[in-house]
Each structure stands twice: as C-alpha cells, then as structure tokens.
Amino acid sequence: MPDGPLIVQSDKTLLLEVDHDQADACRRAIAPFAELERAPEHVHTYRLTPLGLWNARAAGHDAEQVVDTLLEFSRYPVPHALLVDVAETMSRYGRLQLVQDPVHGLVLHALDAAVLAEVMKSRRTAGLLGARLDETDVVVHPSERGHLKQVLVKLGWPAEDLAGYVDGEAHEIGLLEDGWSLRPYQKQAVDGFFHGGSGVVVLPCGAGKTLVGAGAMARSSTTTLILVTNTVSARQWRDELVKRTTLTEDEIGEYSGTRKEVRPVTIATYQVLTTKRKGVYTHLELLDARDWGLIVYDEVHLLPAPIFRMTADLQARRRLGLTATLVREDGREDEVFSLIGPKRFDAPWKDIESQGYIAPAECVEVRLTLPDHERMTYATAEPEDRYRLAATAAGKNRVVDSLVSKHAGEQTLVIGQYLDQLHDLAEHLGADLITGETTVRERQRLFDAFRTGEITTLVVSKVANFSIDLPEASVAIQVSGSFGSRQEEAQRLGRIMRPKADGKTAHFYTVVARDTVDQDFAAHRQRFLAEQGYAYTIVDAEDLGVAR
Amino acid sequence: MATFTGYLRARSDDELVALLVRRPDLATPHPATMASLAARATSRSSLDRVLTWVDALVLQVLEAVVVLTPRTGAPSRQDVLAAVGAGPDDAPAVARAVDDAVALLLLWPDDDGALHPAPGLVDALGGSVAGLAPGGEDDGTDAPGGTPGPVTRDDGPLAVLADAPAAAGPVLDALTWGPPVGLVPPPGTTAADAVTWLLAHGLLVRGDGRHVLLPRDVALALRGGRTHRAPALAPTSADAPVRDPQTVAAESARAAEHTVRLVRQLLTRWEQTPPHVLRGGGLGARDLRRTAQGLDVDDAHAAWLVETAAAAGLLADDGEETPSFVPTLEADAWSAQDVAPRWGALARAWLTSARTPWLVGARDERGALRAALDPELSRPWVPRLRRAVLDVLAAAPVGAALSAADVHAALQWRSPRSVPPLSAVEAVLTDATRLGVLGAGALAAAGRALLAGDDAVEALAADLPAPVEEILLQGDLTGVVPGHPGADLEDLLDLAAVVESRGGAVTVRFTADSVLRALDAGTTADDLLARLSAAARGRVPQPLEYLVRDVARRHGRLRAGAASSYVRADDPALLAGLADDPHLASLRPRLLAPTVLVADASPGELLAALRARGLAPVAEDAQGSVVHAVAPERRVRARAARTSPVRERPLPERAASVVATLRRGDVPDPATSSRTPDPRHATHDAGSYLTRSVDVAHATAASRRARAARTGEAAGPARARAAGGTSEPADLLVVLREAAQARTSVWVEMVGPDGRSQRRLVRPLKVEGGRLRALDPQREAELTVAVHRIAGVEPADTPAS
User: Fold this and answer.
1) Taking CB atoms and an 8 Å limit, are A536 and B476 in contact across chains?
2) Whether the predicted interface score ipTM is above 0.90
3) CB atoms within 10 A of CB A188
4) Which domain holds residue A321?
5) Closest Cβ–Cβ partner in A40, A79, A526 for B474
6) Neighbours of B330 (CB within 10 A)
7) Staple partner for B90: which of A62, A235, B86, B480, CB 3.0–4.6 Å?
8) How many separate domains does chain B show?
9) Which residues in chain B touch residue A77, judged by CB atoms under 8 angstroms apart?
10) Which residue windows does the record flag with biased composition (Low complexity) (chain B) (predicted)?
11) Which of B463, B479, B514 is the endpoint of a domain?
C-alpha cells in the first residue's frame, strides 16, 4: 500500500495520519494490539509493547493478523526486524497455560517443553512450582497462582490462565433499565470482560464505568466485592447501584473507616483494606468473608501495592478492573496485566466524545506574570518551597475571579492543592469549600446542592479528584496540583466531561505562574491533554483583563 | 615420456596468461624461463598458496588423482569422476573442478588425457588425503607399523574377509571413510577379538600401542575403488528466506542514512571534545562508552562507527604533545556532501579496510582490553573476508537473506583450507547491515554495486526515499514529517527541535531548550515562525507559537561578554571621562555601568595607561575579571591510509607481457634468441614501464646464461640442456621433482664443503625444505643434500657416462 495512513517506525511507534481516508479503518485494525500513546490533531502515535501484543493474543488475535494489518496500512516498507519481533513476542504468550487437572489440581502446562525448562530454571519461580509431572506439566500450589503469573510476565513468558473460576455464592442481580439502557460500548465492554473471564475495561472519565460494573454484576449474578478509592466514591457506587439495578440498600454494604458492613454486595475502600495495625493488615478477612463471585476494582491505575499482593491470592475469582487509563505513574502496568488480567475493552476518549456520550472540552492555560516582589521571593526561596510559592501566587485569585465571572451562570469547580489557598479563594469568591476536613455529610450536601444548581461555584481540594459525579459541572479551574501528575489531570478533566443538557463545550482552565516550576509542571500535564486530542491554547492573564 | 615442464611449454599464450592471472605469485617477480616458471609453480609455497583458495570439489579431484596415480597409473577424467562418486547429475560440476585444477596447473593431462598431479602436489596435500591412511610406497616413506604383509594376495585384500568374525564388519565400517585411525577396544570384547583378527590378516595395522590404522589399500578396496563417498557439491542457499525487494531497498537506505547521520554526529562530538589517544594508539574504553551513549548506540556499534570514520580518513590523531582524535580537513569536505556520496566514502573505506572493529572490547592474549583505533587491530585478511562474504551473498538469488551459518558454510566450501572463524563472518554481516550494504539480511542494490565496483553511490541514491518538505505541527508541541525530510527541513529540525523517533517518518518535539538553541544560533522568533509556517501543513498551532514567543521573550535577558581588565570607581564622572579619553582609545575602554569600566588591555597595561594620564589607580585582586576562552577549531590532515589495499591481480595485459618474456627467454638455442621483436612487442616497447621491466628480466637471464657458459661447468650448458639437464637452480628443482615423481634416476653434480664437485647417479625421493632426499642405488644408501650444493642435474635415461 504505497500511500496508506500508517507509518511504522523502527522504534515500534506507529504514526497514524488522522486526515487520511483510511484512517478510521486503520485505527480500528490496529487498536487491538497497539496502545494509543497520544492523539493530537494530525498524527496519532500508537506503540507496540509486549503487553499490548499479549493483550491482543489474549483477545484471540494472532501474529499473522498483526503483521498483515501493519503491511496493509503502512505507507512505507515495514522494518523487517519489527515484524520479526512482533511475531516473536506474540508467540511467547500462551506457550504456558495454567489449567485445572482433575487429579493434580492447578497445573502449569507447557505447549513447549523447552519453555517450561527455561522457566523452571529461573530463580524467580523457585518455591512457586511443585512436583514435575512430566516433560510438559508441573504442579502449582493454588495459593501461588497469581504470584506465578506475575513472575511469568516478568520472565517474558506470560501464561494463559485457563484454570477457570470458582462460581461464588449466587445472588440475583438485574439491571433496571427503565428509561435508560446500557450504551452500545458499555454492552461491548461487559461482553468483552465476561467472555475473557477477568480483565480490565478502559473507558474515559464520564463514560459510565460504574454502569459497566453494574452490567458485569448483573451478568455474573453473584455476590460482589467492589473496591473503590474513597468513601464518597463508595456512596456514589451505592446510590448508582440502587438506582440502576434490582439491588436494594439492604443488600449493599459499606466497608470503610466508619462502617464495617459485609453484605452480598460490599463496597470497600482501598484505604481500609491497606490499613495496618502493628504491621498487620487488620481487614484482610473481608476478602474471605463471603464466597465472592466477582471482584470489581475501580480506578485500577491507582491500585496501591498491598492490594496487588492481596489480589495475587484471589486468582480463582473473577476480577474486573475499571480505569480511564492503563498508564500508571509508577510503571506497574505489568502487574495489572498479570493479576487483574489483560485489557478486555478500550475506547478512545475522542470516539466516545464524538458519539456524544461525553462533552467536548477546551483546555486553556492562563499564564500569570508574577509581580516583582513575588518573583524576588521565589528566586531566593529554597527549592522545596518553590512550587508552593508559585502555585499559591496571590495574583491567581484575580485570574480565578475573572474566569468565574466570564462563565457566570455555569457550574464551576475551582480545584486546588493547598488548603490556605483554597480557603482564600473560597472567601474571595464567596463560595463553599470542600476539603478532606469537610465531613462526609457536609460534602454530600454541598455536592447535592451543586448538582441541583442551587450553588454554581464550588472550591474543592484533591478529595474531588476521583469518582465524584457532578454531571452539570462545565467549567473547571485548577490553581494548583500535585506536581504535574498526568493522571490527576485526567481525573480533573473527567469532572466536567459528563454530557451537558445543552451539548455545550466544557472549559478546563489551568492558572500558572510564569517562569516558575509551576509552569514546568503545567507543561507536563498539558502535554498529556494535548496528547489526548483536546484543543489547547495558552493565554496571558493580561489578555483576560487581569491587571498585573 | 611427457613431463610437467614439457606440458607447460606446450601451453598457448592465452592459457599461460590465464594461469598467471589466477596464480599471481607466479608472475611476481617475473620468471625468466619456462623452467623457472615450472619450478615456481611446483614450489611448496606456491602450491600451498593455490591450494588455500581452491574449493572443496577441486580438492577432492586432486586427492583422487593423487591417490589413484600410484595404484592404477595416471587416471583419466572418467576415472576421477568415478573415484569421487559422481553420478550423471554431478558430472558437470566435477568436470568443472577438473578443468579448474588443470587450469591452475595442479593437474596436467598427458597426450592420452591421463591426469598427472603437478610435481610437489602430493607433499603439499599432506600425508592423509581423502580420509585415508598415509600411502606406502609413492614417497619412499613407509606407513607406520611396517609394510602390510599377508594382504598382498592376488585376489585383493578383501578375499580373506569371508572368514572374518561378525564384529569385524562394524570395525571396518567405522574406519572405511575415515578417519582411518581407531582406538583399540578393551580386551575381552568381541570387538577386540575382531581387531586382533583383522590385525592378523593385515586388514589393520598397529599404530601406537592404543590405536590401529586401516591401511590405504584396504580402505580403497572397501570403498570399492572410490576415493570419496560423494562429490562435495557447493552448498545451495535454496532454503534461505527471500525478502521483498522494496523491503531490502528501504532497510538498506534507512541503515545507510542512519550510519551517515551517526558519523556526522560523531565528528561533531569529537570536534567539540576530542578524546585522548592512548599510549598504544587506541581510544580509551571510557571515551568509547561516552561516545556510544552520546550517539545512543551500544559500544560495539560505536567502535564500528569510529573505526569506519577513521578508515575513511575523517578522524585522525592530531599528533599534538598530548594527542587527541579530531576530525580531519577531509571531514569538512565529506560533511558538505549529500547523503549518498557520504555513504559511498564510508562504504568504500569499510570494504577495503583491514580493521577488525568487532574485536574491540575483547581481551587480547595478555588479557588487555582491545581498544578501538588501536593499530594492533589490523588484520591483512579482513578485506578479503569482506569480499568473500559479499561474494557469497551476491551469488545467492536476489533478495535471499542468508544467515551467518549459510555464509560460513559457503565459505567453508569455497576454501576448505582457509576457513574464516564464524564470529568474523557474523561480524562482517553485522557491519554490512549497519552500513546498509545489506537490507533485511539480503544484499541491497548499493551493496551489489559496491562489490562489483560499479557506481554504488548512484545505486544508493536510487533507493533513498524521495524527500518530504512538509511537517505536521501539533498542539502537543510535536511535529511529524511523514517521510524522509529534505535538506532544508532537516536543517530546520536540527536547528529548533529534538528528534524523538526516526524511521519511515521523523517525529520531533519542540521544547523551550530546542527553541532556545535556534535563537542562540541567531534566528529570531519571527524568522523561526515564518520558516515553520512555510513548512507546516496548516497553520502553526497556538501553543507552539506561544512557546517560541515566550522563549524569545526570555532570550537574552542576561548578557555575557569578554573583557580583560576593569576599572571601578565611586565617582561616575571620573569614569565617564576615561571612556571618552582618546589617549586610552587603543585599550577600548567602555562603561558597563556608571561605576564600572572595562577594557581589552591586560590589567598591567591598563594600570600603566591610567598612571600615564596622571591618575593614581591601584590593582585589584584578579577575581571578577572575565576571561572568555574560545576553544580553537582543530584540524589535521588525514594520514595516508594505514590500510594497505588488497593486492590486485595482475591485469591480463601484464600477464601477457610476462608470457611474452617467457617465450623469449625459453628459446633452446641462444643463436635463435637474437631478438627479432615482433610487432606486438614493438608497440609495448613504446615507453611502457611494464615492457621495460620485462626487458630487465630478460637481460638478467641472458647474463646468467653467459656466466654459466664462461665457467664452462659440466661441459657447457648446451649439452646439459639438450639432454634435459640443467644447472639453473630454479630449473634443476623441477628436474629433481619430476624425477622423484617418475621414479627415475638422475646424474647430480654436487659441490662438497671443500668446493670440489662430484657426480653421482641417484634416484630422487623428495625435494622439500631446501633439501633433496635421494637413493644412491650403487651404494645402496640414502643421502640428503642441500639443494644449494647441487650444481647441475642431468636425467639419466640416457645411460650415464
């Protein structure tokens, strides 16, 4: 194909020219095996990674398909070494299988005896494998199922887990589709997950991941343990489940710092599970409190390390991971792959946005020139204080002021990191403030008031980063953040991406102090937004009419 | 009876020219006579040399002839075909090998077409040929363990086998096709009994205490008269994967372009920070590692780049007191060229370089690390190996991607007596891939042209993708050139962006640093934006424009400059006066601030000048004065190429003139040799150096004959020559070798240590290592004489006087 839309680079990136006639067909063809790395306006960059190729294998694609796709759409001859590498990498998946043997229980079965020999020789598998049955089979202790899978991914021989799942305790759950129904992509996600057994569903913020969870629970119809990031999020899950499914409040338990209820459907926070007392995780028994048939992990990219370790012991139960991005700031993507499972469904933000399921958004960075005395303070400050000084520059209040008044009448969130600054801002704007210190009851009240439009401006700290459903928020202004975290950026953007009743564009402002580390961190985060394909501009605070 | 020399004399000029072209050592220095040519062609060193480069099949043919000759007499072509086990399909290949052997003068056919080995060939091939035990009678040496006894029954050695114990079969089977030596089985086993039986019947002979040997005759009988199981046919590359020509071209072009870019980066780096030369002449391991990291390649790759750039004369030792490696003047000319000619320079240097960069980083015999650019890393055989490897690839079907093992097998067949190590073959293939001579493992058009001496630069240029002058600029501050960027665009990207990935396309990122670099290079923000928007499809994205403007805003807010001395004073009026003082103008004083003045003179000069104006300055501590040193640009002229080019074969014309001389020098009667130059020679005589040098050789030979005539030894050379005798040292070796082979007797005139000569009739056995071993039948003794003591030789087929 002399002028295909795809350029295959030898460093395993794929460049897709989006204005090309065949761009759509090509995107659909490469999506199963290539990870979308960035999606700015003209050329989207995908990357071929071992995990991505193994995900594709897990989804039933073979190397030949991948190679054919690359050859079909590539504009230039595809680097030969890359094709060889793709075939080689993909052939590594599934040469080892975890299977249930009627006599010996869990067994690691090799389709290729040499691979088993190599794996058994590794020091990492020592102690995980039991007696060798023959050339191609070796016994695995059931408790090491997850651990072994982790090790095998690290060794480059990911095992296909065919050992199946325990059914768990049956519990009738149905979807109450009265006046709404699962969107097509949500249905596909549920199907993809259930067909695969365990795995991760990747959907953008605001695309209704909770409903995918509910759909999976209805399909499974078993007792379910849902792990979420915090209490507010837990309450939202509960409300959503009560509203969308046949479950009643009595069937849903909350297991958090304040309440310890174990019911057929239990929602627990990561925090309570990872609480240690005298070096011991005190709430581990929850995992065995019932015969769970399904475990749902919300925001998989935030799973703390101890949860990984606990999950390693839960390999016999179905696991569903929900996330907006597989990118982890700590680089532990391979553990998500081996312990939760391969990616089962993925839909790019822009696709869902173009289908109208999430609101289009426009991102603006406002650069504020610091007055001379602040610049002097900044220049002479200790390095560790610099970010705080820059992020909490007094001038930001005026910028926020002008932005809020520009969007008067729209539901506006002002998001920040530093409590002093937020207190200031709340006072300045005459708006309510939610921080970690605000009681859950008060938070609920303020969020409810915001949802109903009773209040239009809300100043929030990072407690609002995750899983808080504020459908009508259409303007977000962030004044400070945690050192340029891309994931935080995605979360904050997600707050304003629920489709608006009138279909209008959401606005996402970041206020930064010019020529400071604030600007450097902002550059990092904004790169992420631009890579996600959001229109992105930079303006000077002066242009908004804010005086220096 | 026909002789080797006689055969050689009867060759046509064309045949002789072909011989000299194929065996260049015979023509250098020019041989004077046919006899000396024959002597040279049968000398051990020349035979060893030619045997080194014959293929496995030719070797088989030679072995067959050597083995058959003493048994059945000189074999015919048919005999040889049968002996190597050639079926009808293989016959053409074997016939080709026989022709080769004859053309190389390793075999010579007599008038009946029977093939004779060249004198000396038996020794050159060595004792053990075709997996057979050393032969018994042909060279006068006995097989170890004494002569076979009872087997010499009329009905052949195998007749006794009918009574042999069952275990004898496997024993013989194991030894039949060689190697002919076996370990004696432990006593008490059936195999040991069988061996004892075989020994008793002469089918095996004892070697040393623990080994037994299968005698050559027995082995040949077991082989059914054949010498080889099957002819050694050239390995085929039929099962090698074949690459798509487009892929080969694209990969080759990509690699070539990449290498050229890396070399350019290497030169830039070394221009800025030249690495030191080690005492041994090489590049330090740490410098190599640093270079590798800077170029983002591994150490081995960096070593290869450095070596290739040096081979192309782009880098050299600057010869300073503490020497460094720096780019040469030639590097500037090189850098100014397009990609293809730049590649051409590197590729030619690589092909002919004797360097072995793959050894860099390994340890030598003394355990020291081998350094890149170390003079010790040259090996004279490397250029030949590179050509040989590429030859194998060129001989394979177009697009065939041979593995290192395939190439190695082919080389092994081509010259079994000189097989390069597999690791060297692998290294050559790796280098060729890096250079783009190979693409996806197959020989690319450019590589083919390079090997053939055609225009490789043009071939590469044809494969390089058409340049793209358009870039897609995006809001995340990246840009993508959807193809190979043209020169202008490449310059722009070099200037203002950081390359993130290269391949079919180039992706770049604009950062504050990269934009700053462009501004530092003298571009203004408007310039840069204008160039970007000219190259961009669509308009320049707002964030990029903002970035450029923002960087430009900060650019130059700090200023730095050079001054040699300063004056400071609390009184601005005083300094203002000094700045405008015409008497100080030569010091170029200027005010930096109302109370600070700087000048270009040294503090001492400045102080003196101020004092001369009647002021009373005091010197200050030197701290605060700015001295800005700019590193001078360093260049040296490249040394003459260190690598000696592969010696060229004599061109056919040169060989022709050698042959012409031979003919002239070989006229039997001096009377007829009065030079009647034929028209051909006359044209050559027209001042050509070659002809002149031939004349010199001719003159030398003539004067030598004259000298021999004066001394009058052995009643004059005329008589000796008429009877096939000679006193020419080179010629008498041939006579001796021929006699040894034909097992005839010769009269030998020997000069003793006291200077007296004596004539003896002897049967030569072997001429080797400057000595003649011969049998004196009259005294029934063996004697060994140094060849330099032999003054003349005369065949004794006419009864000796």
Assistant:
1) yes
2) no
3) 16
4) 184-353
5) A40
6) 17
7) B86
8) 4
9) 244, 246-247, 249-251, 504
10) 697-726
11) B463
